[in-house]
Amino acid sequence: MCTLSIERLVIPSASLGRENPLPDLRASQAAPIPLDAQTIAPEDAQYMGHGRANGILPYTILDNYGREKKPRAWKAAILENGALRATFLPELGGRLWSLVDKKTGRELLFRNPVFQPLNLAPRNAWIAGGAEWNPCGTGHTPFAVSPLYAQAVQAEGGAILRMYQYERARQLVYRVEATLSGGWLYVRVKTGSARDRDAAVYGWSNIAVDGGEGVRVLVPADRALRHGHGGALAGIPYPHSNGRDASRPTQIPQPMAFSFDIPQGRRPWIAALGKDGYGLVETSTPELMGRGLFAWGTGALGRRWQEFPADADSAYLEIQCGPARTQPERLPLAVGAGAEWIEAYGPLQADAATVQGEDWAAANRCVEAALDALISPQMLESMRERFRRAESERGAFVHNADGWAHLEQLLGGFDAHGLRFPASRMGSAEREWKALLTTGALPCPDPLASPRGYQVSGAWMALLQKSIGNGNGHWYAWYHLGVMLAYRNRREEARRAFEASLQQAKSPWALRCLAVLDEMAGDAQAAADRMLEAAALRAQRNLAIEALEALVAAGRYEQAEGLAARLPTGIRRLPRVKALRAAARFRPSPAAKRQKFRIGD
C-alpha cells in the first residue's frame, strides 16, 4: 500500500532572491531552430513552432539568485511502499527529487546534492536533478522553482499525490498526479485549456540520471533527430553516427539533444542502464510517443554546465519523454479537448553483457523483454482508470501556490477542470488586478515602487483600455498598457503608452521599457540615455545592471564607471556589476578578457 507523508528535506541552497520587476520585452525575438532540409521530412516539422507563446509574460524573470549556499529545509511530499521511496518538492514545480529502489538501496535518478539555480529556463532560474514535468511551454515549465498546489488524496489502492497549477501564458490548467504500486512509480499528466479557445500541448518529462562511465541509454529506435550546439536539427542513424556510439553519453563530445524516431505501434520506453545492466526504465501509454536524450558532452563546456548547478563531481544526462517526436513541436489542442497520459518509472535489471554489447538490436530486445516481464500496457491502462476514479476525491491541501487562477475565476469563463484555487491565496499583485475588475481602475502606486505583477491576455487588456478611456489613465495604467502592447510587438503604440505614463509621473519602469524599445530599434545611444535616467531615479539592482549593459553597449565607458561607483555597496558587489565595471574600465581589450568572475545567473 502506498503512503504519503510530509517531511522537511534539508539541502544546501542558494538564495533564489526576489523576482525581477522588469518585464521581459525582448523574449519575443527568439528564433526558430534551423532544420536540415536534406534529412528532415515535412511531416517531421509539421508542428514545430506551433502555438508558441510570445515571450514569457505575464511571468517575471528570476535572475536575482546567488551562489552562496546555506542549509534550507524544503517541504517534501514522500510516497512510499515496500519497493520504492519517491520524494517530490511541491515548492519547486513538483519536481521528483529522488526515487530510491528500497530493495537495493540505490538511487535511480541523479539526485542533486545542492539547490543552485542557473540560467537555463524561460524565466532564467532552473535547477538540475531529479525529474520534472513540463506540460505547457517549450523547454522548462515557468514553475521550475515556483510552487504548485499539492493535495493528499486517499484513494483505492493507496495515497495519490496531486499537484497542479494554472499556466497563465498559455491559459492552460494542468495536473501531475503520482502514486506507487508494486515496484513502479505511476505518474498521470493531464492538461486542458482554461478558456474557450484552441491551445497547444507540449508535455515533456525530463529525467536526470547518472551520466558517468558505463551508462548506456537504450530506446526502441534506429534513427534520431539530432540538435547539436549551434547546429541544425538533422536526421541521423542511431546509435552509431560519425564514428561514435551516441547511446554511450561519454562518447558525446559537446552538448547534444536527440529525439528518437520510434516506429509507429512500437511500445514507447527509454532506459538508462549502468555497467551492471541495472538502472531506471520509463514507459508510458501510447499518447506519450516521443523519447529523447540530452547530454552535456565530455568537453569543457559540458563539464562546466554540469558542475555549475551541482558540484564538482557531478555527471548527469537527461532522458526525456513527450507527446510529439521532438521538443520544438507542440500539438494542437482543440477547444474543450484535453491531453492525458500515464507514465511508469522503476528499476530494471537486464543482462549486462547484452545491454552493453555492440549488437544494438539484441540490447533493445533484452531490455524490452525485461520490461514486458515487469509491467504490461494493460497495467498502465488499469492505473489510468484508477487515477480517473480518484478525480472526484477533493484531497487535503499539503501545499499552496499563488492566486492568479482564482483571479481568472473572478473574471469569468474559466474552466478549472475540477481543481480548487482558493481565494485566500491572492496576494498583493493579484489584488491590484482584482481592483481593476471590481472598481474599474488599477491602483496608482508610488512611481518608484516596483511593479508587482503583469497581465497580457486580451480580456485584461480590454478592461485596462476601458479604464483609461473612463479617465483612470494614471502612470501605472499607461505603463501596464505599454507592456501589453510591447508583448504584442505593437512597438510604436507601446512607445506612445510609455510616454503617456511618463507624462503622468516619471518612473524608472517606463523609462526602462522605452530604452528596450530603443535598443530593439537599433538606437544604442538613446537606450543608454534612458537607462542612465532610470537608474538615477532608483538604485535597484536590475535597473542598475541593465543601465550598465546599455552604457557599455553604447561605448560610454566613463559614464558606466561613474554609475557603478555611485551604486550602493550591496549592488556594487554583485558579480555581474563587477564584470560590467571591468568591461567599462578595460574596454574591449585582452585585459578585460582575462578578468574572471563567478556570476550567479
TrEMBL record:
SUPFAM superfamilies, alphabetized: TPR-like
A Pfam family of this chain: DUF5107
Coiled-coil segments on the chain, per record: none
Domain of life: Bacteria
Residues of the DUF5107 domain: 53-328
Name of the protein in question: DUF5107 domain-containing protein
Organism expressing this protein natively: Candidatus Alectryocaccomicrobium excrementavium
